[in-house]
Amino acid sequence: MSEGINAVALSGALGADPELRSTTGGTAVLTFSLGVGERRRGADGQWADTVSWIGCTVFGRRAEALGRVLRKGTRVALSGRLRASSWERDGVRHKRVEVVADTLDILSRPQAAGDGQPPAPVPAEAPVPDVYSEDVPF
Q1: What angle do CA 58, 61, 66 make, to 5 degrees?
Q2: Cα(76)–Cα(107) distance, rounded to whole angstroms?
Q3: What value does the CA radius of gyration of the chain take, rounded to a whole number of Å?
Q4: Nearest to 34 by CA among 93, 77, 88
Q5: For FRET with 53, which of 5, 18, 124, 136 sits at 20 to 30 Å CA-CA?
Q6: How far apart are CA 25 and CA 48, in angstroms?
Q7: Is the Cα dihedral 83, 89, 91, 92 positive or negative?
């Protein structure tokens, strides 16, 4: 089989707190679900926002560090590769495709409820100067 490109770049928000565990060999594994939004036009011609949930995994020391700071609602951008796996449980064959993240950047953190800090204010629009004022000398 010839070599191909296996590259993924995503940006979205965590749907739940991530789960940190370890392999039998002691390697840290962080798993989470990333909600990625998309805008589609429906059959009725109206636009609707949809969310696709993508399973993501981070390994090693980066997984340990991110497990301490990532929470539900955290917006991240990541890049990595797709990995397919399959297994059988109770006679039923299961398949999964996930993103193994090589890099992850935190874009914003969710506002913690009850932390005593008000949410960041939304900047007001600057007033538009009246360029048609009668005071203009020309």
Answers
A1: 60
A2: 5
A3: 22
A4: 77
A5: 5
A6: 45
A7: negative
